[in-house]
């Protein structure tokens, strides 16, 4: 979460171009010249006047640009006595570590979900975390004949001992059901903590499958999951 430093006017935030590292974003160059801002005057329902400043910033680490939206109070002076940061973009979401053997294409989808989470696009993030879970199950042999839907795949992975009973519960309750809300149900606001929970448990399940890959492959082979199976016809649930 970006933080405004009221006295200096700088913003501390995770920079996407610095691989999510915490960086200081400056609003002037070394000569003290502002990068630029536009102001908008607003009036609260109680009649209080305020100035909303849309201000350019620059990452001190990599030099990339960012935009801050700041309530600078009625006098419009920046940095002012009590500025309030309303929005800051782009800001990197939290990137959780994943095993090196996790497939590249799915890693990209997981990272995109994290970016959606960082940008506050919670429904998109929830849908993508569910998608990563389903595709991971599929490439591990939980696909085709005998698997009507994602619940079957999760339960089979638990039955084989690939994931624990607690992970099985989390896969259903924290990831699948939340993603299904996005894919199948009417629009509703999804709370950030719910998507953060899906993020956390998705990482744990992917670690279960890829941290000790040799052992998991041995279990999958014993369970006959890696046999080629051309049957399909899955539903998407
Ligand atoms: Zn940067």
Automatic annotation (TrEMBL):
Pfam families: DUF4145 (PF13643). Residues 111-199 form the DUF4145 domain. It comes from the Bacteria. This is DUF4145 domain-containing protein. It comes from Spiribacter salilacus.
């Amino acid at each position: 979460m970006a933080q405004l430093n009221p006295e200096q006017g700088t913003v501390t935030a995770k920079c996407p171009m610095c691989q999510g590292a915490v960086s200081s974003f400056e609003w002037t160059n070394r000569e003290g010249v502002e990068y630029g801002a536009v102001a908008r005057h607003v009036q609260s329902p109680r009649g209080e006047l305020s100035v909303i400043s849309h201000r350019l910033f620059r990452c001190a680490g990599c030099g990339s640009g960012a935009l801050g939206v700041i309530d600078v109070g009625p006098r419009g002076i920046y940095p002012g006595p009590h500025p309030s940061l309303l929005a800051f973009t782009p800001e990197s979401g939290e990137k959780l570590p994943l095993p090196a053997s996790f497939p590249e294409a799915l890693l990209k989808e997981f990272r995109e979900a994290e970016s959606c989470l960082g940008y506050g696009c919670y429904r998109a993030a929830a849908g993508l975390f569910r998608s990563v879970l389903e595709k991971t199950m599929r490439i591990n042999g939980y696909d085709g004949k005998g698997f009507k839907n994602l619940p079957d795949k999760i339960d089979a992975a638990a039955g084989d001992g690939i994931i624990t009973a607690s992970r099985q519960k989390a896969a259903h309750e924290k990831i699948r059901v939340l993603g299904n809300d996005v894919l199948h149900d009417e629009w509703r606001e999804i709370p950030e903590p719910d998507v953060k929970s899906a993020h956390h448990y998705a990482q744990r399940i992917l670690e279960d499958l890829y941290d000790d890959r040799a052992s998991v492959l041995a279990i999958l082979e014993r369970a006959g999951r890696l046999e080629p199976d051309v049957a399909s016809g899955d539903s998407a649930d």
